[in-house]
Amino acid sequence: MASTKKNSSSPILATEILQEIFKYIRDLQTLFSCLLVNRQWCRTVIPILWRDPFEKGPSPTIIQLYVRSLPESARCRLKEAGINQISDCIGSTIFEYPSLLKRLRFGDISNSINAWLTPSKIKIDIQDKIKSSEVLREILTLILQSVDSLDELIIEIYKAQFAEISKSNFVFPEFDGVDEPLKNIRKLHFKGNYLSQDLWKPMTEKMTEITHFRIDSSMFSNNDQEFAANFIKKQKNLAHLCLSRNGCWDALASLAVIGKSIRTLCFFKLDFEFIDERAIKGLKACINLRAVDLEYCLHCDSLGLIEAVKTFQNLKYFACLSERRTMPTEIVKTVLETSGNKLEFLFLNPLSWDTMVHQEIIDSLITNGQTLKFLELSGLHEVDTGRILSACPNLIDFIFCAHGNSNLEMMTKIAKTAPPTLRHLRININGHQMSIAIFRIFLENLQIKLESFHVGAPYPENLKAFLNSNGIKDTYPPGRVEVLRKKFIPTFGLEENRFARIPEEFGGR
């Protein structure tokens, strides 16, 4: 008879199953605890912890471990360059940590090297910068030569780091023989005010499979614009593009070549008043666009942008966070009328709390809001609130800032007109005190089961207990306010909550 005794050395769960479980754990302390259970758990957790070791910011300790992994030839070069700290980094490491990297953060590695080389210096001199550049080259070369594949590359460069270093002293990593790690990168992000083509051109010339491309730069030269446009043109599967500041029209014009693959466009602080015809043509080529996000942009009602938006007939997500007191009415109407039968996410929020939603937007919402599931609006009257809720039968999440004199009337209208699908309700009431009596009336009239309900206005502490006793889940700190643009604005319903439930298909942050 075959023995039924279990092999005590065999793992209870396969490594693949553990990997699938651990990847959903976000808390680092929990992962560290899992690491101590046994060898199998340790081998499974270590790659997760080291895929993005600079997630919490720069760390000289991580640099020490990377330096210990350097080959002897690289260590000798650094010693010859006068970097005496090499002598303190001796002994091999248990794991090959550089090979586990998935998200390469250029800026954090550079800052970590500075902290490792000059821990007590506030201001770094030119010689320290040259030494830091030497270490940076060796570590980046080590990573690129040892890593199996990189998912994301974040290049962050500021003038204060490298501007004083001459080209003869500014060293770059070796890119020969590292084709595969660069080819496997899917997300590329540039930020800072010093985009040096000497660095980013050799790094990116082998990348053709980027799906997410983002540029956050206030210094965008003509050469950078041309290179960014050419880089976009050669991408095969670019789906998410985020551009900030001005000087991006060449990049938008390049979409005329690959626009069909674009699913998400995000613009930050762009002025569309002077958008050129080439950029408009590029935008019109994005016929499969699903999401548009306009944050702090100017002149969103420009004829050129509206002309392009009219071709976006498959939008599911549109957000406009305005920096001014007026909301761009024409572009919102155009989006609703063009994609009204498909639009599911609509976020409209100027920073000024007293901005009223234009009546034309409200009328368009009532006509075209049947498919909306998530809606954020600032500046609604109680009458309009009831009309909008009645016209949006599929609404799941409703965030709004109310403008009216009667809190009781507004809350009663919400209770009577809220669709059965509504699960999350967040209200800003311009600082008016909400009494427990009004909430009691609201809850008595409410015919649906809410999962969360938050009010962005000060109210007594015992109101939290009152809400909880009535089955209203409290998941955000109640009554917290922040100073924004010299005004006390309730946190609820503003930028902090806007992306809480954005599906990954839109490249949500």
TrEMBL record:
What InterPro entries is this protein classified in? F-box-like_dom_sf, F-box_dom, LRR_dom_sf
Origin: domain of life? Eukaryota
Note the Pfam families from the entry. F-box-like
Matches recorded under Gene3D superfamilies: Ribonuclease Inhibitor
Q: Where is the F-box domain?
A: 15-54
Protein name per UniProt: 11141_t:CDS:1
Source species:
Ambispora gerdemannii
Origin organism lineage: Eukaryota, Fungi, Fungi incertae sedis, Mucoromycota, Glomeromycotina
